[in-house]
Amino acid sequence: MRKYIILIAALLMMLSLGTNYAWSTFVPVLKLKYHLSTAQTQAIFGSGGLMFTIFAIIGGRLQDRIGPRIPAFSGGVIFGISYILAGYSSGSYPALQAFIGITGGIGVGLCYLCPLVCMIKWFPDHKSLITGISVAAFAGSAIIINRIGEYLLARQMDVLMIFKYMGFSFLAILATTSLLLRNPPPEAELTAEQPHMKTMTLLKDRNFWGLLCVMFTGSCIGLMVIGNIKPYGLSLNLNLVVAGAAVSVIALFNVLGRLIWGVIGGLMEGKKVIIISLISTTVVCLATPFVVRDAFTFLLFAAVAGFNYASCLVIYAVEIAHTYGPERMGSIYSVLLIGNGIAGIIAPTLTGKIFDSGGSYAPAFLIFGSLSFIAIFLFCFLYQPGRIKNKTASPLSSK
Predict the structure, then answer these.
(1) Are residues 209 and 177 in the same domain?
(2) Are residues 186 and 269 in the same domain?
(3) How far apart are CA 340 and CA 319, in angstroms?
(4) Is the pLDDT confidence value at 395 over 70?
(5) 119's torsion region: left (phi>0), alpha (psi -120 to 50) or beta?
(6) Quick one: DSSP state of residue 90?
(7) pLDDT band, very low/low/confident/very high, at 128 (cuts 50, 70, 90)
(8) Are residues 147 and 30 in the same domain?
(9) CA 367 to each of CA 224, 234, 364, 379: distance values in angstroms, whole numbers, following the listed order
C-alpha cells in the first residue's frame, strides 16, 4: 500500500513541476499590462529551462546520497515561494526573471529527479511504464495551468494575483507530497551498481555528440514553439480563445507523444526512430510560415509540434540505455539534458527578439528549421554506435 501512496504523491509533484510548459498563457497579458517585450518574456521562459537543467544534475546527485525527501522538499519550497514573490513583483522584468526564471527553475531542477527515481525504485519491474507516466504527468501540468489561467484571465484577474495563487498552491502540494517520498528497503531496491564514468571520457565519444546535436536542435524548435505559441497565434490575427487553446493542444500532444514515441522506440531501431523524428520536426518547422494561416492549420501545427518535441525527452533516453547500458543512463542522460537547457535559453529568446524587430515569426522558423535539417546529416555521420563499439570495445565499458 505504501508504494501506491508514494506513487500518487510523486505524480502530484510532477503535475505541479511542469508549469513552465504553460508559460505562453501569460505572455500576452505581461506584454500588454506590464510592457514586457516578447524577448523579455522568452528570456524568463528560457532561464527557467536552463536553471532546471543545471539543478536537475545537482538534485539527482543529492537524492542519490541522502535520499529524495530533502532535495524534493527544498526544491518544492523554493519553487512555491518563487511564484509567490513574483506575485509581489509589480510586474518588473528583472524581478520576474529573478523569481520565475532563475529561482523557479532552480526549484524544479532540485525536485525533478527525486519523484522519478523514487517511483522507479518502488516499481523496478515496470521501469518503462513508470518513466512514461512520470514524464507525461510533467508535460500534462501545462494543460491544467493553461485552463485555469485562461479562466481567471478571462474574468479579469490580474496575472500577478494568479502567480500568487499558483505559488501558494505549489508550496502546499510540493511541501506535503515531498515528505511522503522515501526509498524502499534495501532488498527491494534496484541492486545494480552504477559504474563510474568520467565526463571527459563521455565528451570524447562521437556517439554522445551525435545525440547532443539533435537533442539541441529538436529542443530549440520545441521550446521555441511552446514559449511563443499563444503570441504566435495572435500574430496571425486569430482570436484569444483559439490562441489560448493552442497551449492546451500542444501540451496534450506532448503528453501523448511521450507515450507513443516510447512505443515506436520499442518496435524499431533507435537510430531510425531518431531520424524519423528529426525529419518530421524539420519539415513541420520549415513548412509552418507557408502553411499555417487559419485556426485549423494553427491548431494542427500545435498538435504536431507538441508530438514532435515529445520525442526529444523519450527516445534519446531509451537510446542512451541501449548504447551505453541502462546502468549508465542516469549519469549520461543528465549531461545530455544540457542541450535541452541551452536550447531553452537561446531559441525562445532569439525568437522573441526576431518578432520584436520584424513583427513576424517566419524568420525564426526558417532559421531553426534549417539548423534541424543540417543536424540530420551530422547525426547520421556522428552516431555510429555499432562501429564504435566494435572498434573500441571501449573505454566506456571499462570505466
Answers:
(1) no
(2) no
(3) 16
(4) no
(5) alpha
(6) T
(7) low
(8) yes
(9) 12, 21, 5, 18
The region of weakest confidence among 1-5, 65-69, 130-134, 145-149 is 130-134
Q: What is the pTM of this model?
A: 0.74
Residues 318 and 383: their CA atoms lie apart, in Å, by 15
Q: Which of 289, 269, 284, 255 is nearest to 142 (CA)?
A: 255
Other Cβ atoms closer than 10 A to 372: 25
Domain boundary pick from 144, 167, 191 = 191
357 exposure class (CB count in 10 Å sphere: 0-12, 13-18, 19+): exposed
Q: CB-based contacts of 340: which residues, under 8 Å, 6+ apart? A: 49, 53, 215, 216, 219, 223, 312, 313
Q: Are 179 and 240 found together in one domain?
A: no
- C-alpha torsion 117→165→41→290, nearest 10: 80
37: left (phi over 0), alpha (psi -120 to 50) or beta: beta
Into how many domains does the chain fold?
2
Q: In terms of Cα–Cα distance, which of 321, 346, 349, 347 is closest to 336? A: 321
CA distance 383 to 377: 10
136 in Cβ contact with 80 (< 8 Å):
no
> Domain check: are 173 and 305 in the same one?
no
CATH value at residue 98: 1.20.1250.20
The domain boundary, picked from 191, 222, 239, lies at 191
Decide: 38 and 231 in contact? Cβ < 8 Å: yes
Contacts of 123 (CB under 8 A, 6+ apart): 3, 7, 129, 130
3-state secondary structure of 384: coil
Contact 108, 80 (CB under 8 A): no
| 239/295 same-domain check | yes
Taking residue 192's Cβ as centre, other Cβ atoms within 10 Å add up to: 10
220 & 359 share domain: yes
- 210 and 109 co-located in one domain: no
Average pLDDT for the chain: 84
Question: Smallest Cα–Cα separation from 171: which of 95, 105, 91, 74?
Answer: 74
| Contact assessment for residue 236 and residue 292, using Cβ atoms and an 8 Å cutoff | yes
Domain containing 109 equals: 1-191
